[in-house]
Amino acid sequence: MKIAMQGVRGAFHEIAIRKYFKGEAYETVPCASFNELFDALRFQEADYGMVAIENSIVGSILPNYTLLRESGLRILGEVYLRIKQHLLALPDQTPDDIKKVYSHPMALQQCREFLTPMRRKGVQLVDSEDTALSAKWISEGNMKGVAAIASRLAAKLYNLDILAENIETNKMNYTRFLIVSHEENYQSHLNGQQINKASLCFVLPHQQGRLSDVLSVLSFYKINITKIQSLPIVGQEWEYLFYVDVDFSGYEKYRQSLDAIRPLLSELTILGEYEKGGKVHEN
Known about the structure:
D-Maltodextrin-Binding Protein, domain 2
């Protein structure tokens, strides 16, 4: 089994893979971008994909919604991961030795409070493509005086020391990941799952109050809306796609609610029905 992920070994995507596929045999397929990740599944280079879709601080990763819808892949499940950032460097280095810190711009921003005193002392903060890739560069290049901000797994994989732990400013930093695959894997994966969550995508006619009507119907059927995200439809002025996550206690009631809202919609796509990931995992 091959699982595509954005980033190199040690990335937070790999940690999410380890949590979801715990106890199973698999091989990771590192991808430089999310576009490459979806291409890996498209061209049968991977069986599954682990895709970050939203973060509790920065919000939704909007391009991934479009990639998911256009790919035709299905959502099999989700993982909520608590994101902890660490300052990593070669062994026998101290914080005073560090002259440069590499990491993804988002990680640097997440650790701004910790990094500010270092920056004021002349330490250079350098944007890179990926947190784990920064750690890999330092290890393979034997780069002294240079640190990376990355995961504990990256420190282990690249034989780096952790100079400072949990340096993220906001300790309530979570990322939600989706597990995606082709239809055949989706159907087989449903067996044995307790289906209590779904991700939907729909288009509304350009009529006043239609979204309110849809939400009212879902409320009538006791369907809990956990997320709603709108994106414009390219080439159609003032027309929007709505991505909605719902959870429910009764599957039949949920299916009845879909039948009830279909006449109100121009288009409805079920991106996936799955068991919600209620537990937040530590990295």
